[in-house]
Recover the amino acids of this structure.
């Protein structure tokens, strides 16, 4: 791993200023970033750690779930508000990587990483979630699915960071997330399908494509180490009816 400078700003404003320097990356949980740096895929000269910027916390306001970007996946999984109002999120997180990773990885980092095999992006996309983004030109919001434009590619501009995730209320809609892994249950999935029934009905596919995509018959399926495109198409045909049944049952 190449040497780097670690900066720990005490506020969001300080963090955005620190990110304005060249060859700088934000540092949240670091579970993916550190692996990529150790492998030599990334060599930033400077990391800006977001731990002190007040970006944590889970609240329910006006029926919607508000999750600070620095909230760990473990905290999100165990939050009473999530288990009561959005149980599909808690269920999904139980098999996302492992406990050690969930105790460190953050919601914002998981979304900003851009790996299509992650479980949260397709699920949050199906739930109609939006992210709040701060950057050098101010704040903006975006739908979760609009964060991605390709494999490990996001629409975040230089110096921008996710500060919050907002999930609308389920309001009696049935929701589920099913994935198929080729090895253990906490492995990266070959296919992930998120279904939310009701108004609106939303179905998103992950892992089989280079980013979370709304379900369609002509999805551009990608082959990778987890399976060929043909294999993944077959998995989608098998998993989709199961996911629809589970979502219907969740409404009862």
């Amino acid at each position: 791993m190449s040497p780097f400078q670690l900066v720990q700003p005490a506020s969001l404003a300080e963090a955005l200023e620190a990110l304005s320097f060249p060859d700088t990356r934000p540092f949240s949980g670091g579970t993916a970033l550190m692996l990529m740096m150790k492998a030599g895929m990334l060599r930033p000269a400077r990391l800006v750690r977001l731990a002190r910027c007040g970006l944590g916390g889970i609240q329910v306001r006006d029926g919607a779930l508000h999750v600070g970007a620095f909230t760990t996946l473990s905290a999100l999984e165990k939050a009473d508000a999530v288990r009561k109002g959005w149980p599909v999120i808690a269920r999904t997180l139980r098999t996302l990587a492992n406990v050690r990773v969930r105790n460190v990885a953050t919601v914002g980092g998981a979304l900003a990483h851009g790996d299509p095999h992650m479980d949260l992006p397709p699920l949050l996309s199906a739930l109609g979630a939006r992210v709040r983004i701060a950057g050098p030109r101010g704040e903006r919001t975006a739908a979760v699915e609009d964060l991605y434009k390709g494999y490990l590619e996001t629409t975040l501009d230089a110096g921008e960071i996710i500060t919050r995730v907002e999930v609308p209320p389920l309001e009696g809609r049935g929701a589920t997330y099913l994935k198929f892994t080729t090895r253990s249950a906490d492995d990266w999935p070959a296919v992930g399908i998120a279904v939310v029934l009701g108004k609106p009905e939303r179905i998103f596919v992950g892992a089989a494509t280079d980013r979370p995509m709304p379900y369609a018959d002509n999805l551009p399926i990608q082959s990778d180490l987890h399976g060929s495109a043909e294999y993944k198409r077959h998995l989608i045909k098998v998993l989709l009816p199961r996911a629809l049944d589970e979502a219907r049952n969740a409404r009862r």
